[in-house]
């Protein structure tokens, strides 16, 4: 299961074995079988009316609507299709684990990639080799610096890394004429981001929410981020090692806006966490392992990622995930074309293929993160209504309106934030 900022569960797995694939498929089957009472309660906790209806200050990139209807596979009237070259015989794609749909008839194949090959004749060499943003980019940094072929035509990285790669000029500019489905079907929340306002260097792949994960049996219903600083739970709370999520949620608790976060806001959030720790909170900082703390009972409350909580519920039905009254964070993993790609046109065709609503729905039935493609939910409504109605996968407008995207930091600000956070966590 994937987390937003650095690590993702599952590890590097270039040729996952059938048993591992089976575990991924079980998640999809679990959601399809949502007649389970525990899952119904879980969804009720996510989309309950307990989330305040009063609008919070919305970030500059926040959505204005959650509807995914009205999808189209036709090009926008403002975009003329680019004359088509011939697609290449192969395409090389680096991604995280559990981010592509497995063929139900052959767990060693990916259904969408097989469909793409059938239509375009392109063999996609798809490898799940990304386990950490910095770690992966470090393996191709020399080639990126000199504009040389990295061996990859598509890579998937998180918002902050995508912003850095664009700032450094290390990724190709895409042609919207090659991607009419992206133009027509990209959800509005993902448009006009500060670090790529024209959306021509990145395309959102999957998103997730950061909010409260907790054991309902131990805590009851939780509706406020204040719980993360409540000494009642001292010694049983986990904060995330992902700086943007931990500081972002803390800023929201303080009434600050993460989408415009300044160094002063950083100082305030760090001071708030330090105050709680000094008063005896004894919160621990964890990456992906926070979910294990919740499942084992070593923690009753944690900052948590929505996709992980779907998986965690398989093991512990008393767990809940919610977006607090003050709001939550929205993060996105983005597909990009690194400089030097030998198959840049085919890479764009592949991205556009995945933005067909029927293909996006096929992927989403396996992946279970937030889908960025308009119309996918309508297709799933007929085929898999339990997935289409899952607020962790297709959040309703009232939840989307409470999500905040962390500010795109320049190099100096990013160093300042990271240094402050590393000192706080002891991980620096």
Structure description:
With 428 residues, the chain is α/β, with parallel strands linked by helices. The chain has a domain of 135 residues: 3-Layer(aba) Sandwich (D-Maltodextrin-Binding Protein, domain 2). The protein is built from 17 helices and twelve strands. Strands 1, 4, 5, 6, 7, 8, 9, 10, 11 and 12 form a ten-stranded mixed beta sheet that branches. Strands 2-3 form a two-stranded antiparallel ribbon. The two termini are 25 Å apart.
Topology:
Blueprint lengths: L17 H15 L4 H11 L42 E5 L7 E2 L2 E5 H10 L2 E5 L5 H13 L8 E5 H10 L11 H6 L17 E13 H4 L17 E4 L2 H11 L9 H16 L5 E3 L3 H7 L4 E5 H10 L3 E4 L5 E9 L7 H11 L2 H11 L8 H8 L1 H4 L8 H4 L2 E2 L6 H15 L3
Parallel strand pairs: 1-4, 1-5, 7-8, 7-9, 11-12
Antiparallel strand pairs: 2-3, 5-11, 6-9, 6-10, 6-11
Helix pairs in contact: 8-9, 9-17, 10-11, 13-14
């Amino acid at each position: 299961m994937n987390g937003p900022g650095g690590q993702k569960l599952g590890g590097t797995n270039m040729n996952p074995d059938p048993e591992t694939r089976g575990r991924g498929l079980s998640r999809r089957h679990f959601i399809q079988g949502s007649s389970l009472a525990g899952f119904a309660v879980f969804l009720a906790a996510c989309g309950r009316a307990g989330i305040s209806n009063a609008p919070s200050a919305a970030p500059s990139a926040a959505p204005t609507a959650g509807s995914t209807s009205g999808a189209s596979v036709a090009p926008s009237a403002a975009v003329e299709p680019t004359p088509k070259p011939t697609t290449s015989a192969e395409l090389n794609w680096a991604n995280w684990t559990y981010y592509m749909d497995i063929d139900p008839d052959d767990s060693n194949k990916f259904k969408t990639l097989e469909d793409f090959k059938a239509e375009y004749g392109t063999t996609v060499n798809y490898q799940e080799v990304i386990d950490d943003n910095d770690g992966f980019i470090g393996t191709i940094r020399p080639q990126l610096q000199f504009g040389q072929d990295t061996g990859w035509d598509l890579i998937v990285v998180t918002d902050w890394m995508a912003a850095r790669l664009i700032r450094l000029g290390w990724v190709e500019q895409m042609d919207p004429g090659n991607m009419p489905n992206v133009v027509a079907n990209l959800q509005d929340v993902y448009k006009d981001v500060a670090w790529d306002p024209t959306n021509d260097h990145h395309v959102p792949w999957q998103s997730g929410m950061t909010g409260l994960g907790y054991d309902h049996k131990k805590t009851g219903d939780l509706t406020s981020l204040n719980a993360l600083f409540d000494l009642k739970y001292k010694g049983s709370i986990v904060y995330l090692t992902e700086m943007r999520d931990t500081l972002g949620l803390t800023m929201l608790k303080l009434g600050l806006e993460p989408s415009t976060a300044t160094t002063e806001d950083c100082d305030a959030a760090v001071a708030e966490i330090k105050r709680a720790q000094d008063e005896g909170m004894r919160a621990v900082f964890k990456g992906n392992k926070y979910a294990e703390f919740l499942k084992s009972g070593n923690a009753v409350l944690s900052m948590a990622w929505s996709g992980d909580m779907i998986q965690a519920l398989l093991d512990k039905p008393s767990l809940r995930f919610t977006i607090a009254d003050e709001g939550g964070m929205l993060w996105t993993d983005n597909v990009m074309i690194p400089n030097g790609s030998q198959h840049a046109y085919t890479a764009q065709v592949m991205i556009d293929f995945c933005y067909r609503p029927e293909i996006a729905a096929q992927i989403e039935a396996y992946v279970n993160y937030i889908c960025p493609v308009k119309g996918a939910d309508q297709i799933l409504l007929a085929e898999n209504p339990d997935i289409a109605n899952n607020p962790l996968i297709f959040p309703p407008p009232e939840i989307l309106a409470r999500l905040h995207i962390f500010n795109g930091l320049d190099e100096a600000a990013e160093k300042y934030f990271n240094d402050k956070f590393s000192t706080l966590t002891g991980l620096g």
